[in-house]
Amino acid sequence: MRRSLMSLVWPIISGILLAIVLLNAFPQLMGERSADDAATPVPDTSAVRAIAERTDTAERAPEVVEAAPLNRSQGPASYASAVNKAAPAVVNIYSSRMVERSEHPLMSDPFFQQFFGKDMPQRQRMLSSLGSGVIVSAEGYVLTNNHVIRDADEIQVALRDGRETLAKVVGTDPESDLAVLKIPSENLPVIQLSDSEQVAIGDVGLAIGNPFGVGQTVTMGIISATGRNHLGLNAYEDFIQTDAAINPGNSGGALVNAEGALVGINTAIFSRSGGSQGIGFAIPANLAHQVLDQIVAHGRVIRGWLGIDVQAMTPDLASSFGLKTLTGVVIASVVPDGPGDKADLQPGDVLMSIDGEPIIDAREAMADIAEISPGTKLPITIVRDGEKREITLTAGERPVASESEAQ
After folding, report:
1. φ and ψ at 301, to 5 degrees?
2. Residue 104 annotated in active site
3. Which of 147, 176, 194, 349 is labelled catalytic?
4. Strands 357-358 and 141-145
5. Residue 294 · residue 302 · CB < 8 Å
6. Are 236 and 227 in contact (CB under 8 A)?
7. Segment 105-133, tens digit of pLDDT
């Protein structure tokens, strides 16, 4: 009897032990979730059902367009066609000026000056500089940098086909570091201007110019950045940055795209050695075009002016004015009898917006003001003594800056 009972007990005990093992390994068999399952949220079936019932397509998951795998074999093996298209319109510029200096260093001594007075012996010395330029019109207009031809008594232009001619200065714009020259127009090669707003980082860029006076040279790189400012080079800055090698003598030359169209006018490099270190800057073709049109039409660039100097908003300044954001710029000074003075603007006012557009950056604000036509009535918003005020002023014409003021 005992033996028969034992034969029945052992299978029952084995079954219980097996059940315990299975429940430990698979707790979901009891309707419980493991720690890993607990970390996974259970979908709200009612919410899923509600989403499925919606018919408003604006709230459905957006459809994205998948890009095809990048095919790098489509790039050209040579940029010779782009160079042949653009290079003939890129010229070498040689400017020279005469300077007077004393015959002998002792002549600067007041003791010797009393014997000669104003008739001190002098001799002339020729100072020369070199740069590049771009023919942008069949009428003979050439764009270059202002610093290339600054104070020049004579400017000589050499074309790629061997022709050389003297150029006259149509006008300069020190604040953008651009100048417009004119040469005799006889079968001149002309470069095409691109829309520099369409330039993208990563585009191929070819720099064409006359580095170190060795002759026309082409270097290649990419567009490294756009909209570069706060560099302290010009009053108005919106540079295209490139790593195409730009060296002394390239100033005023062309930065072109892979199709040979003008992207910008090479103007400066960032360098600790004086040579190219892969950081060069070009003035966008759109800005150069605007300057060209205004100089040809008016002999100068006409810019809007409010007669104020501004400085950037900082957290400390914002706190002192009781502002919770860094929007706006602080009016540092007001030019007497200028448009701002006539509208009763005062140093310490915070300029928040112009014509409804909020102001964030001081340099960008100055550039926006420059694009306003003189005589335009502008509604502006300022903060004075913690209170917002709406003021209307009439924009004036920005006075022509001297060379030193333009920097």
Report:
1. -95, 125
2. no
3. 147
4. unpaired
5. yes
6. no
7. 545 555 545 555 555 555 555 456 689 99
pLDDT of 128-168, one tens digit each?
Answer: 668 999 999 989 999 999 999 988 888 999 999 989 999 99
Torsions phi, psi of 336, nearest 5? Answer: -55, 135
| Beta bridge mates, 393 | 378
Residue from 181, 162, 157, 159 nearest 170 by CA: 181
Exposure on the CB side of residue 96, measured as CA atoms within 13 A: 10
Provide the Cα torsion 267, 272, 273, 275; round to 10°.
-30
* Alpha-carbon dihedral sign for residues 203, 291, 139, 171: negative
Closest CA to 307 of 378, 403, 230: 378
Region label for 274, one of left (φ > 0), alpha (ψ between -120 and 50) or beta (otherwise): left
Nearest to 130 by CA among 108, 112, 145: 145
Structure tokens at 20: 């315990």
Q: Per the structure block, which two tokens stand in for 365?
A: 């604000």
Active-site residue, from 132, 173, 176, 177: 177
Type and span of the H or E element at 319: helix 315-320
DSSP-assigned letters across all residues of 15-32: HHHHHHHHHHH-GGGGT-
147 has catalytic annotation:
yes
Name the more confident of 29 and 182: 182
177 carries an active-site annotation = yes
The model's pTM: 0.68
Minimal CA–CA distance to 278: which of 178, 359, 207? 207
Confidence at residue 207, expressed as pLDDT on a 0 to 100 scale: 94
Residue 91: closest CA among 120, 56, 131, 145:
131
Q: Which of 95, 196, 251, 276 is catalytic?
A: 251
306 Cβ contact list (under 8 Å, min separation 6): 338, 339, 340, 345, 369, 378, 393, 395, 396
